Amino acid sequence: MTAPSPDNPFDQDLLPSPPGATAALLRSLIAPMRARVALTTVLLLLQQAAVQVGPLLVAYAIDRAVPAVRDHRYGPLIAVGAGYLLCALLSGGLQVAFVRQSARVSQDVLLDLRGRIFRHAQALSIDFHERYTSGRLISRSTTDVESLRELMEDGLQELVTVVLSFVYISAMLLWLDLGLGAVAVGSFIPLYFLIRVYQRRAGRVFRARSTAIAAVIVKFVETMNGIRPVRAFRRESANDTAFAELNRAHERANGDSLLEMARYVVGSRLVANTAVAGIVLWGAYRVADGSLELGVLAAAVLYLRRLYDPIDRLGMFLNSYQSAAASLEKIAGLLARTPSVPEPVAPGELPPSRAGFPGREVRFDKVRFAYRTGGEVLPRFDLTLPAGQTVAVVGATGAGKSTLAKLLARFYDPTEGRVLLDGVDLRDLPTAELRRGVVMVTQEAFLFSGSVADNIAIGRPDASRAEVERAAKVIGAHEFISALPDGYDTDVRKRGGRISAGQRQLVAFARALLADPAVLILDEATSSLDIPGERAVQRAMSTVLRGRTAVVIAHRLSTVEIADRVLVMADGRVIEDGRPAELIAGTGRFADLHQAWQDSLA
Amino acid sequence: MPTTRATTQDRSAVRSLLRLWPYVRPVRARLLTAALVAIVASCTGLVIPLVLKWLVDGPVADRDPAGVWLGALYLLLLGIAEAVLFGIRRWLVARPLSRVEAGMRADLYRHLQRLPVAFHDRWASGQLLSRGTTDLMLLRMFLAFPLTFLLVNGVTILVGVAIMLAQDWLLGLVVLVPAVPVLWTCVVFEGRYARVARRAQDQVGDLTTLVEESVLGIRVVKGFGRHRSQARAFDALCADLRGTELHKARLLATIWGVIVTLPELAIGAALVLGVIQVADGDLSAGTLVAFLSTALALRWPVESIGFLLAMSQEAATATERYFEAMDEAPEGGPAGEPAVGPREPAPEPAVLQDAGLRFENVRFRYPDAAPDSPPLLQHIDLHIRPGESMALVGATGSGKTTLTALVPRLHEVTSGRITLNGVDITAMPREELREKVAVAFEEPTLFSTTVGENVLMGAPDGTGADDLDRALAIARAEFAHALPEGTATRVGEQGLSLSGGQRQRLALARAVVGRPEFLVLDDPLSALDVHTEAAVEAALRRVLADTTALIVAHRPSTVLLADRVALLSGGRIAAVGTHQELLRGNAEYAHLMSGEEDPR
User: Fold this and answer.
1) What is the average pLDDT value for chain A, to the nearest integer?
2) Do residues B357 and B314 share a domain?
3) B20: which of A436, B70, B166, B249 lies 20 to 30 Å off by Cα?
4) Greater pLDDT, A134 or B212
């Protein structure tokens, strides 16, 4: 494998995002549920308060209740018992309330984030999708969200618990004895540095790990989606080797992250246990010389154990924080991509179409298209397709036919100039309005999970079953669909739902038929159809779709027979333009092509 | 009885987890050592209160400074030992556990690659992916924490309880009382939790599938402006998942509540009793401090059992999901058995009349189709003579692609047999079969690697640049040389995106690069423009002159590449002949080739 070139951000997993984007993303996720976050925090505050009273009661019991009982006064003892009972019930009940409440908050944040990634990815333009791997997008919305889930579910609770118990216990210790408390608080300084070091090192490791898993996912998805060629060309072993390499990289990064954690745990435990020993030593000395009560020392020691108890858990939090931060950074990078085909700021509207005349006029006004890298695909041109005209676009691969179609479908926006639909710039049309106007059927007839009927109804979701069937009948797809195990309700991914490439194109065409657009673009949409299938499509175009403006890109010239007009393209320019009969009669490129096609029919 | 059901659930969770053993075996020594180290470390933590007791009742009471120093020194040493031991535990398992995860993932990948194509038709790759990523991460975490700590904490609790009982048996018993209800709650709730956890994992898989489809089908989504309905479907799945996760949280909250409250109540009772005993002089203050210190030290081990069990349940369902895929039988071994149906036991020597590619009474029904449904293909008898090319023509959906998939055994014939030069294809190793038979698929898939490697993957190792150039020339894919980095340009998922026609030509080059003896081409020229098609045909003719080939064709131009044509209709070979013969004599063929209802 060749190394990815460093100058192309798409070769890296991490897309550039403005500084602070990650924090801003996190803030914007939390902001709408500020009140509930506050409630959750209060619940946890109270719960921790209830939990942390325990040792205080022990101190009270040893220093006050024991002498009182010796004096046959049971008041303090009853107070200790009642206090403990109350604390136990409170800490349990608050725990239940907190777990429920925090789950609700974190699930809502995740819901929001999943939705944002999904919607944003869907809003990003085709040229983004052509460069950003589907595997990476999938990894953004699965494993990366998953790591945030871990942070939200376990991590945040850990963090709040840890911080709260640090604060509570430090306060308790300081209150019990200023000296002992000061030593305990002093031990936070080395802990702080340990955490800083860990964060820096782990951050690096986690970024590497998240990149490594994304690479694994890309390879995995690619293999499973291309299983037929993998099998037929015996790629299994070669794939195993390639996968093993990616997998090993992930394994290494994974191991590194676990080792970083081990280092942190040893360091923090050492600091904590040394502090405990020191405090006990000093405290014991002071009890011995009478300047400290025994109960206070006992409580202090119990608190100390608790003080450092969550250190490991703090490590776990940092762990999930680092991993989530690495993921969030990538998600923020993705969300920072602005769609190069944005929704209009001031949405326009198409003029009402004339009754009985459903097509619309298409005009390319001084349009020029070049890739951002500089390669010019279509030099500046003007072109008008009158409403209702069927235009065939022919030309060799790379002549710019598909680019023309994609500009018209607004998969791309022109670099210069405007594409107008009945005089309205496509950029001013909201998506829903645009798709009522223009529909494009491409060669890759993708089917979604679900029934065949659902797949056809993508063209018009509110269509009735009868309408779906009518569309299928017109296009000649009804017979094969009825023959499927459950007819129109057959799940295309389940039992017996196998559908051939030609059948998929028919389904895709039925979709377009149902959508009933003013302008229909067919980009190689009939390449896998047999001749009867192609004829059915042509029939549909001259009957059901009559009067629509149609742009047909086809390698096979049979389509041209139904076209009113032919555009021949070469090197991004229209070099011939005229009625089919005229062009065939002439001596140009099209006459030549047509002759070759005639010959191929034999 | 919920209890019984929960117990069976529990047992089956253990059974699921036991299946991990083969993967854990290689690292068992390390894992066990780590567990032992953790037990020692944990018990070290339990000794600390005892030192404290000794300190309070001894040197502190006696006002003995030297003893205080000694006590503190013990504490320090114990603390250092505990820290180092916990570090060692993590260090011991870090690499091995990553290795286990990676090993399981590699196995899954290897296995999935070898599962029948029919399996992949049935399973969305998102479901497979979530098994290979999230589920395996859960398993690694299970091996790292719950597995070790259920043992460690169990032992710690036992030791702690023993220490407490030794110090004061009455207080010890009081603290033990909640054990029974806590255990009962755990068992009951874990069973329910397991079911909900499984549902959540499956829902994640569905979500992954939807995300994947929305990305792969982005052109359709955009072309029809279907963002909204996709987003609605996505929202619905997300909302389901949220509901399940909240259900999970409710169960977890209850377990936590019980696990937190009951032991705390017991400790409170012990405190009250202890105070009375100390006041009566039956117990030393040091013992009470040590006792409570121990009880509180056991808090974490006890509380953790709730989430350790929850994690174990999730790991168990993850294991089930993992093995659901792993338990699928891969394609039979080298001389693999066909899925069903009789076949000749031994290959007979090739006789001249058997040479070439021959279908004998082949019948095929998809293995997952209803057994009473009519087979897709039946009584297929077809003989393609050596060096001959046969076009396969039939209406859309007549089973042409399926028939071609039978030759390299991507699907297994239901009955009948296919022979290459007289040898039954089920009698030769798949590797050998697939080396002999090269395929160009209807959908030209390119992999994320260089153009050169994409083409050369069709050839035996050591095929050189000359063969690459030759194959590119035959497929008229010379455009590859003009790419930014020539044939070293990366394409596919992570590279340059090529047009349909370009991909198709590369796929064709891939099929011919290894000079295969048998060639199966599925509508190989559909995406080419007229001129390119003519040029490819001319070059392909030379290759086909001495190659036995089966070519699925939709158009006369492609049919004319072949010497003869077979018409597939109603699941049978309805006619065989030259293009002209069939055009004149077969109405269906004439219809397919001209689109007109009446034969010319």
Assistant:
1) 83
2) no
3) B249
4) B212
CA distance A490 to A493: 9
Residues 441-460 of A with CB under 8 A from B: 441-449, 458-459
- A306·B532 Cβ contact <8 A: no
Beta strands in B441-597 (DSSP E): 518-522, 548-552, 564-569, 572-577
Q: What is the pLDDT of residues A446-465, one digit of tens each?
A: 888 788 998 898 888 888 99
> Architecture of A19-332 per CATH?
Up-down Bundle (1.20)
Q: Is residue B336 part of a domain?
A: no
Picking from B73, B234, B497, the nearest residue to A118 by CB comes out as B234
- Model pTM? 0.79
Pair B255, B119 in one domain? yes
User: Which CATH class name applies to A363-589?
Assistant: alpha beta
**Residue ranges per structural domain of chain A:** 19-332, 363-589
Q: Which two tokens stand for residue A50?
A: 């209830």
- Taking the C-alpha atoms of residue B252 and residue B200, their distance in angstroms, rounded to an integer, is 14
Range with top average pLDDT, A277-291, A340-354, A406-420, B498-512: A406-420
The amino acid sitting at A138 is I
Q: How far is it, in rounded angstroms, from Cα A212 to Cα A209?
A: 5
- B290 and B174, same structural domain? yes
Domain range spanning residue B431? 352-594
B548-552: strand order across its sheet: B437-440, B518-522, B548-552, B389-394, B564-569, B572-577
Mutation choice for B interface testing from A84, A101, A138, A521 by most B CBs within 10 A: A138
Residue of B nearest to A299 (CA): B289
Report the distance separating Cα A9 and Cα A16, nearest Å: 7
In a domain, B389, yes or no: yes
Among A93, A255, A480, whose Cβ lies nearest the Cβ of B95?
Answer: A255
Tokens of A199: 């964060």
Residue B497's domain is classified under what CATH number? 3.40.50.300
Cβ separation A227–B492 shorter than 8 A: no
**A19-332 and A363-589: same fold?**
no
The number of folded domains in chain B is: 2
Chain A residues whose CB is inside 8 A of the B44 CB are none
| B482 in the same domain as B375 | yes
Asked if A373 reaches chain B (Cβ–Cβ under 8 Å), the answer is no
User: Which of B94, B129, B434 faces A217 most closely, judged by CB atoms?
Assistant: B129
> What ipTM does this complex have?
0.81
Q: Which chain B residues are within 8 Å of A443, Cβ to Cβ?
A: 500, 527
Q: Are B280 and B288 a contacting pair, CB within 8 Å?
A: no
Give residue B338's pLDDT band: very low, low, confident or very high (50, 70, 90): very low
Q: For residue B245, give the nearest of A66, A107, A599 by CB distance.
A: A107
CB contacts of A235 in chain B (<8 Å) are 447, 457
Q: What is the dihedral of CA A179, A180, A184, A187, to 10 degrees?
A: 60
Answer yes or no: are the C-beta atoms of A433 and A352 closer than 8 Å: no
CATH number of the CATH domain containing B58: 1.20.1560.10
Considering the domain architecture, whether residues B311 and B266 belong to the same structural domain is answered as yes
Q: Residue B234 falls within a domain, yes or no? A: yes
* Residue A51 tokens, joined: 């939990």
Q: Does A396 touch chain B (CB under 8 A)?
A: yes
